[in-house]
UniProtKB/TrEMBL annotation:
<keyword id="KW-0732">Signal</keyword>
<dbReference type="InterPro" id="IPR051136">
    <property type="entry name" value="Intracellular_Lectin-GPT"/>
</dbReference>
<protein>
    <submittedName>
        <fullName>Lectin, mannose binding 2 like</fullName>
    </submittedName>
</protein>
<keyword id="KW-1015">Disulfide bond</keyword>
<dbReference type="GO" id="GO:0030134">
    <property type="term" value="C:COPII-coated ER to Golgi transport vesicle"/>
</dbReference>
<feature type="domain" description="L-type lectin-like">
    <location>
        <begin position="1"/>
        <end position="227"/>
    </location>
</feature>
<keyword id="KW-0430">Lectin</keyword>
<keyword id="KW-0479">Metal-binding</keyword>
<dbReference type="GO" id="GO:0005789">
    <property type="term" value="C:endoplasmic reticulum membrane"/>
</dbReference>
<dbReference type="GO" id="GO:0000139">
    <property type="term" value="C:Golgi membrane"/>
</dbReference>
<feature type="transmembrane region" description="Helical">
    <location>
        <begin position="265"/>
        <end position="289"/>
    </location>
</feature>
<dbReference type="GO" id="GO:0006888">
    <property type="term" value="P:endoplasmic reticulum to Golgi vesicle-mediated transport"/>
</dbReference>
<dbReference type="InterPro" id="IPR013320">
    <property type="entry name" value="ConA-like_dom_sf"/>
</dbReference>
<keyword id="KW-0812">Transmembrane</keyword>
<dbReference type="Pfam" id="PF03388">
    <property type="entry name" value="Lectin_leg-like"/>
</dbReference>
<dbReference type="GO" id="GO:0005793">
    <property type="term" value="C:endoplasmic reticulum-Golgi intermediate compartment"/>
</dbReference>
<keyword id="KW-0333">Golgi apparatus</keyword>
């Protein structure tokens, strides 16, 4: 059935993060509270900032609406780097992935405003993508996270005069990301991935970073809604608790079990028996060939 949106502000999100409920949020790095928004980074080089909720979220099905604004002096493709929205086990840990830690446990949705991979031509930036990590994967910054992304879309979100929104919806193990960036107040599909298993009790946050290029990355509001859905008994079984983030049928680099390196003895025996087999085959071949020669001689006489 369809999801019913009920209590807002479960898990301590909701209202403008800079307002009365800001006791539930912690700022990190260069993030600053302004009157109407939180500025994760100013339009200045080499800054990083984040805001994290203090309350772990135990909702089973939820929707996070993000009202944001990215703007700056930089001309097209001379701005960066974007921001991330997180639902992760760890919070308040700075790092290289849009200002937050790598090898995270949980979900990251990235609004990437600068293409680091120079060779690619087919992807237009800014680009939104999603990644689920069980702690073993590294975000490949040089390739804009392509090796581990679950899906994505182009989203022209810089220097706009109208409001820009993004929503992350997690219902019945299905992760969808929708955007409203054209000033039409309509949600547009961006990412849709079934079979996403996220543990409960993780934290919501958002972080941003600037490098040689910069932008103002502003969060106007983060609103979390609890979604109420009915499940069949089969869906109940399928959606039971998980303790590590995982995506069904996903083949990613580093997810395959590494092959055990062969011991020296095993390698020696394989080579030895292969050689024996080859010699054996040659000997048999020579014998058969000689027999055949004799047979054909007999036919001539």
């Amino acid at each position: 059935g369809t999801a019913v949106r009920t209590s807002q502000w479960a898990c301590g999100a909701g209202r403008g993060v800079g307002s009365a409920s800001s006791g539930l949020w912690d700022l990190l790095g260069n993030a600053m509270v302004m009157t109407q928004f939180i500025r994760l980074t100013p339009d200045v080089q080499s800054k990083q900032g984040a805001v994290w909720n203090r309350v772990p979220c135990y909702l089973r099905d939820w929707e996070m609406q993000v009202h944001f604004k990215i703007h700056g002096q930089g001309k097209k493709n001379l701005n960066g780097d974007g921001f991330a929205i997180w639902y992760t086990k760890d919070r308040m840990q700075p790092g290289p992935v849009f200002g937050s830690k790598d090898n995270f446990l949980g979900l990251g949705v990235f609004v990437d405003t600068y293409p680091n991979e120079e060779k690619q031509q087919e992807r237009v930036f800014p680009y939104i993508s999603a990644m689920v990590n069980n702690g073993s994967l590294t975000y490949d910054h040089d390739r804009d996270g392509r090796p581990t992304e679950l899906g994505g879309c182009t989203a022209m979100v810089r220097n706009l005069n109208h409001d820009t929104f993004l929503v992350i919806r997690y219902v019945k193990r299905r992760l969808t990301v929708l955007i409203d960036i054209d000033g039409k107040h309509e949600w547009r599909d961006c990412i849709d991935v079934p079979g996403v298993h996220l543990p409960r009790g993780y934290y919501f946050g958002t972080s941003s970073v600037t490098g040689d290029l910069s932008d103002n990355h502003d969060i106007i509001s983060l609103k979390l809604y609890q979604l109420t859905v009915e499940r069949t008994p089969e869906e109940e079984k399928r959606d039971r608790e998980v303790f590590l983030p995982v995506v069904d049928n996903l083949k990613l680099p580093g997810m395959e079990a590494p092959l055990e390196p062969m011991s020296g003895l095993a390698l020696f025996l394989i080579v030895f028996f292969s050689l024996v087999a080859i010699v054996f085959a040659i000997v048999i071949g020579i014998i058969i060939y000689n027999k055949w020669q004799e047979q054909s001689r007999k036919h001539f006489y």
